[in-house]
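Extended Data, panel c. Modelled sequence:
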Amino acid sequence: MSNTSPAKTGHHSYISSIDGLRAVAVLLVLLFHLDLQFAHSGFIGVDAFFVISGFLITRNITQSVERGSFSFLDFYFRRAARLMPAVLTVVLLTLIGGYFFLSAQDYNRLGFSSFLSSISLSNIFFWTEAGYFAQASDTKPLLHTWSLAVEEQFYLVWPIFLFACLASGRKLLVISMAALGLLSFVAAVYFHRENPDMVFFLAPFRVFQFAIGGLISFLPAWKFRDRLSIIGILSVLSLFGLAAALPDDLSGFQHVVTVMLLPALLTGAFLFTAKSNVQERIFASPILKYLGERSYAIYLAHWPIIVYWNMATDYVLSPFEQAGLFVASVILGELLHQCVEKPFRLSRSASPARVLRTKFFLLAMAFMSGTLAMNVTYFNGFAKEGAANSQAISQGPLTASLGTDGVADQEGRCFMRPQDAPELYGVERCATAPVGKMPKVLVFGDSFAGDMYVALKGGFKAPYFGHYIIPGCPIESPSKVAANKNQCQAHYKNAYENVITKNRFDYVVLVANWTKVSDKDIVETKKYLESLGVKVVTVGLRPRFRERVPDILQKAGESNAARTRANVLVNQDFIKRADAMKISQGGADDYVDLMDLLCPETCDIETPNGDLIYRDDSHFTLKASSWVGREIRNSYPDLFNQSVSP
């Protein structure tokens, strides 16, 4: 996302059309984050930035090494002077803003992510936070720094790779770069099936995008390249087309090829013809040139603004708000560019005094941002009061989902992590009923099934309740399970073929995040279980909020204000999916309309006894689980009273 000075920078010719390509990339990302439907996949702008960086850095370093003027120390210092002042400024301002907008828990996390953003490791932090119980992405004001961390890690390693290969000539370098890029691509395809978050956030799986840019830099300057300028124009149009048309449900090979490789190849195609006269005229136009030169600053500034605005309002942006946030991002990007980027930028002819001043300010800014971030994270600096219901906040996912069962004993047995081997499931403890206990019920699904197990067990005393919980794995249908391509499918395969059939359950209660499961898969799963002689009960969706409910209560200060804000922040996708399921079920007596119980008119966040219902954005607290179970029993008293086989 770095820029170069328009003219001649040292010995490297400036390609002005690349500013236009940067403008396109940052516009795609900005429009995506503003929730504009025609850019719903605008995140591919980040892929374009990676290819541009690979092209420019490979080109510049290669030329410097071959001239004998390359210095590792000089390169790293100039990269730091170019990138870090703006990052550190945004980190400091985001920390200050977070004090007013974030809950105590989120502010603590912001402190840690701020520190890691300052040392270019935030992508690793956000990867580790990307699990099922993670903080929502639109409450992480520095989430976008993951891509900067990837770039900076690339800048750290790539010069060493180039220098080592160039010792044996360009031919070896090109072959090695192509091989490294291919290895990165294959690894991305292989690991995306098991861990897509790792592929998204970590630098090794992005190397092939940088390598595409690097390889383009070695293509000869063919005389007829001007005649191919249409390629560059079509590439940009195709990037906008991809941003509008990419499907959301791709996985594995399809995802890596379509979402990661294709945008990189289109960007490479533009770079191949970037010097053509037509592209220079179109993509170096004043507006695109202006946005391109400020693309790094706009990228840094836009996401914290959007996050804090959403947290202060309702996460639903009107056209007026979208336009206002777009303008604000450009204005603040301009301020960051003029007041921070340009003063720290070093030309080849920079005086020793300016170089020394830059070093001093870099160290001072790093010290200030690092000190503030660590103070917030580890020393409870600028402490904020906790939420009124601290018990609800302190309950982790296992505790809240498993009730009074021992957490350590249950983990890896009834409450299976996706990465656990299915054989670790504790059949004796989790799915074996005492002799004579009737009927036998298995609560089955993702983490929503965890707190529902606690609810049903407390609400209905007579049946035996077993449970097979796989958080992060919405229910997979038997036909998909047969493929056995990922960890989730392996767990459901074990449940269908071993646990349910061999333990002769009378009922299976299906509970899941149904926004991630199609009606076709639900019908197929029910028919399969019914063919085994099992009665199926489906529990519908509960409300999900755009922020954690304890945080809403903490920031609101009292129950009525918190209830009002919580209802504004209900995720409408969950409401729509729940309404669709209610229609498709047609009033069936084996369907529990949980949304109807929890949101009869508005969605409350406290039980009649004043206990908080939700421990995060959707999972129940322990006390609320018992209350939900009683409400289900009162509304569906015959749910498990149908005749069963002796």
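The chain is about 60% helix and 5% strand. This feature is highlighted in the accompanying rendering.
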